Amino acid sequence: MKNWYILISWLFISSLIITKTWAQNSTEDQKMQWFKDAKLGIFIHWGIYSVNGIDESWSFFNDYISYDDYMKQLDGFTASNYAPEKWAQLIKSSGAKYAVITAKHHDGVALWNSQASDLTVVNKTPANKDLIAPFMDALEKEGLKKGLYYSVLDWSHPDYDRKTRTKYRYKNDPERFQKFVDFNFKQLEELSSTFNPDLYWFDGDWEHKAEEWRSKELKAQLLKWNPSVIINSRIGGNLGDYDTPEQGVPVTKPDSKYWELCLTMNNSWGYQHNDDNYKSPNELLRIFVDCLHMGGNLLLDIGPKPDGSIPDEAVNILESFGRWTDKHAAAIYDTQAGIPEGHVYAPTTLSKDRKTLYIYLDYKVNESLVIKGLKNKINRIWVVGNGTKLDHREVGKQYWSKVPGLKYVDIPDNVYDKDITVIAVLLDGEVDLYREKGQVIESN
Ligand code: GLC
User: Fold this and answer.
1) Could you give the C-alpha distances from 326 to 112, 322, 353, in angstroms and in order?
2) pLDDT tens for each residue of 398-417
């Protein structure tokens, strides 16, 4: 009798726990849905560092320039040709669904009209106005999601224990440091209440522990201001919603459910007149496709000039993205990570219902493309954005073997896209793959 009682209570409690985690997961999934589907975002590093064209904040931290000389750039930051609506239109036409702009980088210069700090572009530069506000409005008008980059460390703030500038250290004066953290909370309250961003892109957490930043409390507070705000991984203490690999393109699929690769077009985040090492549109599109294949997003960076104009090379890249994403929309936004390596020698994705396999070809195949280990029947194959129907044939299938035959798809020369050609393969059901090592007749 007693045993029954224990068993029933145990079952009851575990079902409560399962329902609770399930509910948490599904609200988490709901919150992350737009991000998961967005695939492409544009990162904007805009700040006084564009005046001399030097590394954002790091140039004084690393002593490539003195702090005072770095700050002299304030005088040259005019924003005189700033056209936030045009920025938003250009971003939208690239196929991106969200943008993330540096509200404040490690140098501490706020791009909005912060009341908590004197160091703002409104007070200290000839731009003399809030630069975040009109951009947030423009993004909203274009139906794009609004992201704000915010550096939790601030190498200008008197209460921040910057290694190369102030003598005091957190350990010797934690109270003073907490004054600084309060300041972060104040600035973030301003940002949340004024702009209600959809996403916060934190940075700079590496200089302190999560407890010192009060990351948990901060996250709770941000969610109080906006329960559906998405937070990247760099808030400290593993509290973020998604991972942010940087510059290095992942080779195998990252483990996290949600992730975003942030990437520069040349070798700099901000505008640097001397850096013309741009990746070509084709190279960048291929990186984008790699992200799609591994189920992640690409956050592609631009660095506007001090007057607010966007360098021609960046405009050209965004326009090239626009051409390709517009033509291939069906194979971008409604997809999930593709099938494992080994079946096709190209990146792939799957439609949400897992019944369409998309294959991305950045090369011309000789004679025919081969798909291995596909158990499904193929109902139809076509070239995305072009419509041409393609034939296929199955070769090498043995009646006694479980190993599927090789499916050959002939691709005529005239259907290729100049950057990446996408082949859609409609299956007779959810994708079903043979993942074993082959078979001999005796084992049948
Ligand atoms: C790094 C750098 C920073 C840059 C960021 C973008 O964290 O510190 O300068 O803004 O990457 O991902």
Assistant:
1) 33, 6, 22
2) 999 999 999 999 999 999 99
Q: Are residues 266 and 233 in the same domain?
A: yes
* Residues 185-220: tens digit of each pLDDT: 999 999 999 999 999 999 999 999 999 999 999 999
Q: What is the number of the ligand 1 atom nearest to the C-alpha of 57?
A: 9
What is the position in ligand 1's atom list of the atom closest to the CA of 151?
10
Any ligand 1 atom below 6 A from CB of 107: no
Residue 309: DSSP 8-state: P
Q: What is the CATH number of the domain that holds 382?
A: 2.60.40.1180
Strand partners, 359: 348, 423
CB of 247 closer than 6 angstroms to any ligand 1 atom = no
Q: Is the pLDDT of residue 13 over 70?
A: no
User: Are 314 and 363 contained in the same domain?
Assistant: no
Closest ligand 1 atom number to CA of residue 203 = 7
Nearest ligand 1 atom to the CA of 246 is 12
**56 CA closest ligand 1 atom index:** 9
Same structural domain, 315 and 377: no
What does the block give as tokens for 169? 């250290």
Over residues 299-315, mean pLDDT? 98
Cα(51)–Cα(54) distance, integer angstroms:
8
89 lies in the same domain as 222? yes
Within this chain, do residues 203 and 275 fall inside the same structural domain, yes or no? yes
Confidence of residue 334 (pLDDT cuts 50, 70, 90): confident
pTM score: 0.94
**How many domains is the chain built from?**
2
Measured between alpha carbons, how far is residue 113 from residues 52, 130, 180, 383, 420 in Å?
23, 5, 19, 50, 43
**Domain residue limits at 308:** 32-327
Question: Quick check: CB of 205 below 6 Å from ligand 1?
Answer: no
The two tokens of residue 144 are 């794009």
Domain boundary among 260, 293, 327: 327
Domain closes at, from 327, 351, 382: 327
Same domain, 128 and 201: yes
Q: Report the distance separating Cα 109 and Cα 51, nearest Å.
A: 14
In a domain, 91, yes or no: yes
Q: Whose CA is nearest to atom 4 of ligand 1?
A: 269
Query: What pLDDT score does 164 carry?
Result: 80
Answer whether 290's CB lies under 8 Å from 338's CB: no
Instruction: Tell me which of 203, 247, 261, 299 to substitute to probe ligand 1's pocket, judged by most ligand atoms within 8 Å of the beta carbon.
Output: 203
173 lines ligand 1 (CB under 6 A): no
- State whether the beta carbon of 260 lies less than 6 angstroms from ligand 1: no
